[in-house]
Design a protein that fits this description.
The protein has 432 residues and is mostly beta strands. It has a single domain, classed as Porin (Beta Barrel). It is 8% helix and 50% strand. It contains seven helices and 22 strands. The strands form two sheets. It has a 20-stranded mixed beta sheet that branches. The longest helix is centred in the N-terminal third of the chain and has 9 residues. The chain is globular and about 85 Å long. The termini are far apart.
Length: 432
């Protein structure tokens, strides 16, 4: 009976809450520039990358678009138990929306800007998945992008050439409680009560943009670590026999603190070059497994010694992930009034140690290359009075092959893993 209840609870494991913007970029421009956006002040993505860069906008801008990512990752296992499957990284189609709104008035005009950015997966709000550590899984991509994402930001100009900003990303926690009362003699439930609360939690971001001249911008930003805490305690009242209390809690898949510094420089009126470095504190990553405990109580269970026989608690080792430094480089060429071209990329070290033991969290040394374009045109239907901009972007993420060598008795088996992911995005923007 205990096993059946425990299995049901584990099937209700919570969703991953790492932001899809962290993985693939927010807006086609950011995707095409390989995420090198911290020192860029004239894009909808500033609400996510650097709230201090919002002051590049003096007009209201609205954008709506679509993005998708297709996985070509593979895991080749030399000898594997059929009971231990390999977790699959699924495609992640999503809609994206952005709004930047400069405030007006004699006091706030050109000094305060508000922004909202969001993404919504196609067909659902959140993909729920927690995979046992015995199953090979690409930790960085396993359901992390399949979630609703929302961030808001406020940018303020302090003086000419210096602006700061703060923002929030919306994360959540899931708190539940389950109470069952069972008549053991008749094998019937006398009570079944379940309560689940999904609470939203603001996760802060902050940024600074320094512009010593019209051609030079220096940006710094910080995004706080995000995670989903969940708890699902369950009480099973066995009447005169006593009670079983099941504790289920943990932190769902996680994204760490991100510290970014960047410089952008206009080589000419048409050519912009930007370099960026991100430092991610992956060493703080909590264990990814559901923490489970069973605590029997009651005089009958105690007198029979079952309080000790049935009691147990899961114990999982630390993840052992490494902090990483991710360099970015991008260039943009605004060669014509109607067309802007861009390209960029980054290199990301693996965060996971060699998975030669009991865990199977897979990650690879990764290169990313991106490219994109913006087309500016007059609306032929004359719905919009001002010109409209259509952005496209694409990105190739290459996960270099890596190997894990298991002991002969390990049912997961040794493996080689790597592959690629391909992303594309399109967005229609209107500035008025």
């Amino acid at each position: 009976m205990t096993r059946r209840f425990l299995t049901a609870l584990l099937l209700c494991a919570p969703a991953a809450f790492a932001n899809p913007f962290e993985l693939y970029g927010f807006t086609p421009r950011a995707m095409g520039m390989g995420g090198a956006m911290t020192a860029i002040g004239d894009d909808l993505g500033a609400s996510f990358y650097n709230p201090g860069a919002l002051l590049g906008h003096t007009k209201t801008e609205f954008g709506i678009g679509f993005a998708d990512t297709h996985s070509n990752l593979y895991v080749d296992r030399s000898s594997a138990s059929p009971t231990i499957s390999t977790a699959t990284v699924e495609n992640t189609p999503r809609f994206e929306l952005g709004l930047i709104f400069p405030l007006g008035g004699a006091l706030l005009k050109d000094r305060v800007v508000l922004a909202i950015g969001g993404g919504h997966p196609l067909g659902g709000l959140i993909r729920v998945q927690t995979v046992d550590e015995s199953h090979p899984q690409f930790y960085m991509y396993q359901s992390k992008a399949q979630r609703f994402a929302l961030n808001g930001a406020l940018g303020v100009k302090i003086v000419d050439g210096l602006s700061v900003g703060v923002g929030v990303q919306i994360t959540a926690e899931q708190i539940g409680k389950v109470d069952f009362a069972l008549d053991v003699a008749s094998k019937q439930f006398k009570a079944r009560d379940i309560t689940v609360d999904l609470n939203t939690i603001p996760t802060p971001t902050a940024g600074i943009l320094i512009q010593p001249s019209e051609s030079l911008s220096i940006g710094f930003s910080w995004r706080k670590e995000s995670q989903l805490y969940y708890a699902q305690p369950t009480g099973i009242d066995l009447g005169d026999l006593g009670a079983l209390n099941l504790g289920v809690q943990g932190l769902a898949q996680y994204w760490p603190h991100v510290f970014s510094g960047a410089v952008s420089f206009k080589l000419t009126e048409k050519v912009l070059v930007t370099a960026q470095a991100d430092y991610l504190l992956w060493s703080r990553a909590p264990n990814d497994q559901v923490q489970v405990s069973v605590t029997p109580s009651g005089p009958v269970l105690t007198s029979l010694g079952l309080d000790k026989v049935l009691a147990f608690q899961s114990a999982d080792a630390s993840m052992g992930f490494a902090n990483i430094l991710v360099p970015h480089l991008a260039v943009e060429y605004a060669g014509w009034d109607w067309l802007t071209l861009r390209a960029g990329g980054y290199v990301r070290p693996a965060i996971t140690p060699d998975q030669n033991g009991t865990t199977n969290y897979l990650d690879n040394f990764t290169e990313c290359v991106g490219a994109g374009a913006s087309f500016r045109f007059t609306d032929p239907l004359q719905v919009f009075t001002e010109p409209v901009t259509f952005d496209i972007g694409g990105q190739l993420i290459i996960a270099n092959q890596r190997s894990s060598q298991k002991q002969a008795a390990d049912p997961t088996g040794s493996m080689d893993y790597g592959g690629s992911l391909v992303s594309f995005a399109a967005m229609l923007r209107y500035l008025y």
